[in-house]
Predict the structure.
Amino acid sequence: MQSLLEWVDARFPLLKVWNEHLAEYYAPKNFNFWYYFGSLAILMLVLQIFSGIFLTIHYKPDVGLAFASVEYIMRDVPWGWFIRYLHSTGASAFFIVIYLHMFRALLYGSHRGPRELVWIMGMVIFVALMAESFMGYLLPWGNMSYWGAQVIINLFDAIPVIGPGLSEWIRGDFVISDATLNRFFAFHVAAVPLVLVILVFMHIVALHRVGSNNPDGIEIKENKGADGIPLDGIPFHPYYTVKDIVAVVVFLIVLSSVLFFAPELGGWFLEHDNFTPANVLQTPPEIVPLWYFTPYYSILRACTPDYMIYLSIFVGIVGAMTLFSARNIMVKAVAVVTPLILIVGFYTLEAKFWGVVAMGVSIMVFFALPWLDRSTVKSIRYRGWMYKTALGIFVVTFLVLGYLGTQPPEGLYKALAQIGTLIYFAFFAFMPWYSQIDKTKPVPERVT
Amino acid sequence: MSTNGVDKKRRRFLVNLTAGVGAVGSGFAVAPFVMSMTPSERAKAAGAPVEVDISKLEPGQLLTVKWRGKPVWLLNRTPVMMDSLKGLADILEDPESTDAEQPTYAKGIARAIKPELLVVVGLCTHLGCSPDKKLEAGAGAGLGADWPGGFFCPCHGSKFDLSGRVYKNVPAPRNLPVPPYSFKSDTEIVLGIDQKEGVA
């Protein structure tokens, strides 16, 4: 055995990789509950790819056959229902894990320097994951698949000049059709998973270059022992591999409970309208995306003509504050010109277009987080009341927007979504100020 | 300039030139893949003109036909329906149909070549749901007693009149589009081929 390992190691850096990323990768010793979700995300990726491969064995990407082939998997294929529900429930579980993984970063400042690239790669993974789940949802060719895709692809139509051509290019037809289904299948099972795996690999390589953050937001590499090993670090293997296995067991118990007893979770994980085949001439009563997209869907729908005045005031305030705080003359110029261009745009281009822009920005703004946060400390443990309050309000707003996205945008619901949209953006837009003036507590030398 | 027989300036120029040519070549190589995703010849053929016989379309009846995979409504409007189009200017976003949502031969309040025959694409201009037909005027449609007849999108509540003109302050920004169409004979229309100006 030993000689076989030596033979391999002379030809492939097996031991080196093992040591660098597991046995001699020193992670802070104070990881808590929130640090499970990275490993769980990898577990979900593997489960989704695995169950997905087995679904493609029986699934047919053809508008005449797709719906029936999914029902065939559900009813006739031995254990087909299990594999299908594992995949559909897994998608929601994946997003729950990813959202908690991202929330961890907001708690402990894991996106802050020197981990900006880890964060950016993670965000690219998140966007790719959204594309992956959106395209996957078309494949069963249910009525919600069809009309959901219709609504989302029509978003691109709102882009001036190139919009109509772009949406035609995405569909490969003038409407959602067999061409669209077939290419979504190709992207869903081949292209995007490949990209996801590569991105996850890079995400981990980048993380292991800078080292893991921890609940105290302290750089453990700044306190090394005589042997060059961080004093507050412990080898990832066996300490965290074993710890994470416990988390995996608990997580799988929860996942199985949903999978076996409520795989559709009352329409939250699989919508009722998707159990009727796609009908080109009949829209479902209410088009609603799955829960993980609804916060952004709320923001999209909040932008109506009468909302533009509030958006104008909002960008005006952010511009004015930037103008007075910035020292650089170029930044000052941008702070004056950008709001003006936007306000002119709000009243010349359609509100629908600005809805699409707002939705895009609501996702893309996460990329800027490492630079918006100006606090001297990373972890919420040593931050003052301002950031804690802001983060709390943001989380509540995100959940409320998510709920409102499943409801018709009328009356009180519409007004709440519009207020929520402003709060959502305020969390990011005013972060440079409130994170900076927030009173922080002294950060200890070593992890606690 | 030259060190050890290496002309660095020349080398840099050649490297940049090679990279530049390679980039252009890569661009050309990508083009077929990008183009392959545009609508195929078959999809274009399926988007070919559709002939519709309207001889059996009674006044007040609506016929849905599929053109380019979209529902197209043909509504034979009664005189009462035609009257309902007048006097709505205040509640409509674009009563005279000045936005380019219809061919030039289908402007005005009737938005049709033959005023009584409405031809529109039955997809909401908000996000593409297919609105419900609420052709009857009055409270029966469930949209209030003053409902003049028209179309109501259940997705996000947009309203349109019997010419497919959009109401003010609803999510849909524009009137329902009128597809290009023409009369082949008195009882037959062709969807997808423009009416020649001056003929009708």
User: Anything to note?
Assistant: The interface with chain A takes residues 34, 37-40, 43, 46-47, 64, 66, 68-71, 126-130, 153-157, 169, 171, 173 of chain B (CB under 8 Å). Residues 94 and 165 of chain B are 7 Å apart (CA to CA). Chain B has two domains: 1-38, 45-191.
